[in-house]
């Protein structure tokens, strides 16, 4: 073999050794890849937020207090009856219009007088007052011979005013007093009446009347048998900044609530305590017991200044029956007539005064919060006549 051939043989062997060693090195790696399992990546641990510096201010969420209800300013009491009188006049009161229409006729026959009597009776004026009014009108029409509209109106106004009786004392006894021991004693007004007459609403409106006269007031929610009564009264009071004393549960003792209200009125030097009572009229004995207990308990702290009976003016003779019962049981000192809309029921003012012998002191005409006014006989009659 030639030298050149041996040289090439050695070169070929060297190449094979090099290539074989590289393959040997590569094979184990490949095997390790095929036989290996996929390892889960290491979890990423987030660093906690850095603690604030000791002197750093920590932001607190703002505390939002509920807004207090806006306190309203009631309308002045002066002029309320004028507004109500004008509303009566605008309603075209059938009572006044019918009376004027008949009295203005040229010749009044017996049929005309019968028509006048029927009109008065339908107006719930009552048989006694109606007879008195007709007798007076008959005499004066014959003597004076009046026929023109202005004279007839003046005559009718004068006679109507007599039966409404402007001489009655219609002032509310709401002045506080001083006890024998020199302590402050508030005026206490007990409000009674059957449910549905607007009694609780009337108490709320009366509170507005007193606040308009710069009197301080405490309300006593002693109608504990009607679930919404205390809530309703409290809402009325809150609107004019007046506090309401109420029970913590329905059906609580009404006398206890009334007593607490009067005691608070004394402690706070309040001018007037208004006590709303339940309007249940199941039977006379039950009513007498309940109101009697309330009265006895209240008078341990302060005497009653007023007992106001709330009547619905549209109930007519039924309202008079209610008035009789309450008059015998509660010692009523004044009447509040609600829903006095100037229609054919205006005569109830006269009838209820005659029945109980006590005056109408307040009248309600309309649904507004300030549509309660001290009664004025002259303006009422003017409103009926238009």
UniProtKB/TrEMBL annotation:
Cellular compartments annotated: Cell membrane; Cytoplasm
Catalytic activity, EC: 3.6.5.4
Residue stretches making up the SRP54-type proteins GTP-binding domain: 359-372
Topology versus the membrane: Peripheral membrane protein
Transmembrane segment boundaries: 6-27
Sorted UniProt keywords: Cell membrane, Cytoplasm, GTP-binding, Hydrolase, Membrane, Nucleotide-binding, Receptor, Transmembrane, Transmembrane helix
Primary subcellular site in the record, as a coarse category: membrane
Class of the enzyme per the UniProt entry, highest EC level: hydrolase
UniProt cross-references to InterPro entries, sorted A to Z: AAA+_ATPase, P-loop_NTPase, Signal_recog_particl_SRP54_hlx, SR_rcpt_FtsY, SRP/SRP_N, SRP54_GTPase_dom, SRP54_N_sf
Reaction equations catalysed: GTP + H2O = GDP + phosphate + H(+)
Chain residues that bind GTP: 193-200, 276-280, 338-341
Subunit-level organization: Part of the signal recognition particle protein translocation system, which is composed of SRP and FtsY.
Alphabetized NCBIfam families for the sequence: ftsY (TIGR00064)
Record PANTHER family: SIGNAL RECOGNITION PARTICLE RECEPTOR SUBUNIT ALPHA
Function as written in the Swiss-Prot or TrEMBL entry: Involved in targeting and insertion of nascent membrane proteins into the cytoplasmic membrane. Acts as a receptor for the complex formed by the signal recognition particle (SRP) and the ribosome-nascent chain (RNC).
Sequence similarity: Belongs to the GTP-binding SRP family. FtsY subfamily.
Name assigned to this protein: Signal recognition particle receptor FtsY
Source organism phylogeny: Bacteria, Bacillati, Actinomycetota, Actinomycetes, Micrococcales
Gene designation: ftsY
């Amino acid at each position: 073999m030639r030298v050149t051939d041996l040289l090439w043989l050695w070169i070929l062997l060297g190449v094979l050794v090099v290539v074989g060693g590289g393959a040997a090195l590569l094979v184990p790696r490949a095997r390790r890849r095929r036989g290996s399992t996929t390892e889960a990546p290491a979890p990423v641990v987030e660093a906690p937020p850095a603690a604030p510096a000791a002197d750093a201010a920590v932001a607190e969420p703002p505390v939002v207090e509920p807004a207090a209800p806006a306190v309203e300013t009631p309308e002045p009491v002066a002029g309320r009856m004028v507004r109500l009188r004008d509303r009566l006049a605008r309603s075209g009161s059938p009572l006044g219009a019918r009376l004027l229409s008949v009295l203005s006729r040229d010749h009044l026959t017996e049929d005309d007088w019968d028509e006048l009597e029927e009109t008065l009776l339908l107006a719930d004026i009552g048989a006694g007052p109606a007879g008195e009014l007709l007798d007076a009108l008959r005499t004066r029409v014959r003597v004076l011979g009046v026929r023109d509209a202005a004279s007839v109106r003046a005559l009718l106004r004068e006679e109507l005013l007599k039966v409404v009786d402007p001489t009655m004392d219609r002032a509310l006894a709401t002045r506080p007093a001083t006890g024998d021991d020199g302590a402050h004693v508030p005026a206490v007004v007990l409000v009674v009446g059957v449910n549905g007459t607007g009694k609780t609403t009337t108490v709320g409106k009366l509170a507005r009347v007193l606040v308009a006269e710069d009197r301080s007031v405490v309300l006593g929610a002693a109608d504990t048998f009607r679930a919404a009564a205390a809530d309703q009264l409290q809402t009325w009071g809150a609107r004019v900044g007046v506090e309401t004393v109420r029970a913590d549960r329905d059906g609580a003792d009404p006398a206890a609530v009334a007593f607490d209200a009067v005691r608070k009125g004394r402690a706070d030097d309040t001018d007037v305590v208004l006590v709303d009572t339940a309007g249940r009229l199941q039977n006379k004995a039950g009513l007498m017991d309940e109101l009697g207990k309330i009265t006895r308990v209240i008078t341990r702290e302060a005497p009653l200044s007023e007992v106001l009976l709330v009547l619905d003016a549209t109930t007519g003779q039924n309202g008079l029956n209610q008035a009789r019962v309450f008059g015998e049981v509660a010692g009523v000192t004044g009447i509040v007539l609600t829903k006095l809309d100037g229609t054919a029921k205006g005569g109830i003012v006269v009838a209820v005064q005659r029945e109980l012998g006590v005056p109408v002191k307040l009248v309600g005409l309309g649904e507004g919060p300030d549509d309660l006014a001290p009664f004025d006989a002259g303006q009422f009659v003017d409103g009926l006549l238009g």
